[in-house]
Amino acid sequence: MAAATSTGPLAGVRVLEVAGEISAFAGRLLSDLGAEVTLIEPPGGHPTRLYGPFAEDEPGPERSLWWWHHHAGKQGITLDLADPAGRQRFRALAAGADVLIECEDPGVVAAALGGRPERLIHVALTAFGQDGPSHPVTDLTVLAGGGPVWSCGYDDHSIPPVRGGGGQGFNTACHYAVMATMTALLAREGTGRGQFIDVNVHAAANVTTEFASYSWLAARQTVQRQTGRHAAQRRTQPTQMLCADGRWINNAAAARRGYEFASLADWVAELGYADEFDEYGVLELGRDIDFISLADLDEDPLKGEVFGAARAAIEFLAARLAAYDLFQGLQSRGLPAGIVYSPEEVLADPHFVARGFPVEIEHEDLGRTVTYSGAPIRFTASPAAVRRRAPHLGEHDVDQ
Predict the structure, then answer these.
(1) Integer Cα distance of 92 and 80 in angstroms
(2) What pLDDT is attached to residue 253?
(3) Where do runs of H (alpha helix) occur along 192-300?
(4) What is the mean pLDDT of residues 290-309?
(5) Core vs surface per residue 365-392: b (16+ CB within 10 A) or e
């Protein structure tokens, strides 16, 4: 399969990636940004090739959707790091690479490398860092031990916390790894030297708990999980609303500024509901208010009433409109809202389609294209893109 030409912001950057579950998304992100990523697998293939689900529900090492997603855009070779000949080849590849990414037990890849080339940026993702305990982890244990799971779930605390899906624990660490890698690439332009980057996966999860960790560190306060909104020390107002078609939207901010109250009141009137909505008069008073802060809700009774009227207006409209119509109407009037989508609905949304987010990738072995989620960032001069399907086992051995 011919390699697609890269035009991304990292075009020309050569990356070696030792296949592993924890670090896989970091390589995918770098590839989407234009780097030439070569994935190194053991001769029999990496175990994640057998992670389900599978294309058309037919298991096989070339049909794992997990593998397709995490390794799209990469080239793939096989190499045995435990074999002297494999290590020699690995060192030769590293000598010509800009970045090496891996998630093996501390020291394993460094020993195979036999000494880091001066310009190489070596990025290692491990559960607790190179100097931490070497324990096996899963994405669930990372999210639980790192703290995010505590903040995720429902108002009803008889229901256990909920782990977010999609590999968020490992992927969070991968985002930090990519940001650190790009920082190191910039630093190398001035120094001519690479460096070793030690990514602690649990620490990455912990600093991604919004203010949960900091609330405890600064004030010894523990946040509580809430349905569809930020965890907080005390219960906040629900934000999810059931619409007339049985679907849900999330509207956390409502309205806080005069022009927002005016826009919402005008919409209620345009739809012919001004007389039917009991708090329309209070909502109209919001036209003359500059801004309502959270502190105002307790200190200024009028501002509290106007804010509540805006929330009531959106709930009133939700009971009468389909979710997509409410979502579009609020967004077009400068009021933040999000319809609760399934993943496939996201890819079909007109906004995402207009931005070119869904991408068709050729799978010649299937005789058709497959829709992938594309790059969420648009660069006008150096477009990011998913360039090709994930590599078959040993597909590019002869190219290296």
Answers:
(1) 14
(2) 66
(3) 201-206, 212-219, 258-270, 280-285, 296-299
(4) 90
(5) eeeeeeebebbeeeeeeeebbbbbbbbe
